[in-house]
Amino acid sequence: MKKNNRNLSIRNLHVSADGKKIVNGVSIKIKPGEIHVVMGPNGSGKSTMAQALMGHPNFKIENSKSEVCMDGVDLLNMSPDERAKNGLFLAFQHPISVSGVSVQKFLWGAYKILNPKVKNGILDFRKEMELVADKLGISKEILKRSLNEDFSGGEKKRVEILQLLMLKPKYVVLDEIDSGLDVDAIKVVADGVRRAMNEMGAGVLLITHYQRILEFICPDFVHMLIDGKIVKSGGMELVEEIEKNGYEIN
């Protein structure tokens, strides 16, 4: 019987930045349709891990120790665009602005790169994009504006979820997608994540400080990250423990 290797497998991940070790041997295996949550205090290495997985040049993965495979394919020797083409998606904690490139133009361009044999034209894509955007509370006017330029924090995070739902990756890393959002915006973001899991079967790695978004998304696994190491794993009971006692290890 052929072994099922459909997963995002992170084994013994070691990451450094500016010569300083930040992530120290993290191992997580995410299957399609699963959601894994990583929680930890500021400076624990959460965002560093997210950026390194996507291939940010400022964060060096120690390849001799680390292994990251997606559906059996080694990601560590791939460039960031190759990782995206293979189905990895990162929603940024602080999305950057791209002046002169509208949201809809950016999305269409990215979609064509990821789907070079696509038969549907731009009109069909735009129709689907507008339907998805409407469900996320994103107006047509925002779709015509330069990507993230003068957007509010909530608008930026909603557009990140729009990208996720339109580009349809296999595995998703959400770097504090809930930071700075009010309850209504968190509900919208959470609904988008659930859709990605239910409709696309995406595996999700959600990085967060707070319990709020987890009230709307029930994770399969929760991991506590401290000083670049996973010190404890569990389910929602671990979230409740963190909410009650902070990041003290019991």
Span between termini: 42 Å
> What's the CATH class, please?
Alpha Beta
Q: Runs with pLDDT <50, length 5+?
A: none
> Do you know the CATH topology?
Rossmann fold
Written description of the protein model:
There is one protein chain. Helix content is 36%, strand content 27%. The longest helix has 18 residues, at 183-200. By secondary structure, the protein is of the alpha/beta class. It has helices at 46-54, 80-85, 103-114, 122-135, 140-144, 153-167, 183-200, 236-245, and strands at 8-17, 20-30, 35-39, 60-61, 67-70, 73-74, 88-91, 98-102, 146-147, 171-175, 203-208, 221-226, 229-234. It has one domain: P-loop containing nucleotide triphosphate hydrolases (Rossmann fold, 3-Layer(aba) Sandwich), CATH 3.40.50.300. The mean pLDDT is 91. It is globular and about 55 Å long. It has eight helices and 13 strands. A six-stranded mixed beta sheet has the order 7-10-11-3-12-13, sandwiched between helices. Strands 1, 2, 4, 5 and 6 form a five-stranded antiparallel beta sheet that branches. A two-stranded antiparallel ribbon has the order 8-9. The N and C termini lie far apart (42 Å).
Topology readout:
Layout: E1 8-17, E2 20-30, E3 35-39, H1 46-54, E4 60-61, E5 67-70, E6 73-74, H2 80-85, E7 88-91, E8 98-102, H3 103-114, H4 122-135, H5 140-144, E9 146-147, H6 153-167, E10 171-175, H7 183-200, E11 203-208, E12 221-226, E13 229-234, H8 236-245
Parallel strand pairs: 3-11, 3-12, 7-10, 10-11
Antiparallel strand pairs: 1-2, 1-4, 1-5, 5-6, 8-9, 12-13
Helix pairs in contact: 3-6, 4-6, 6-7
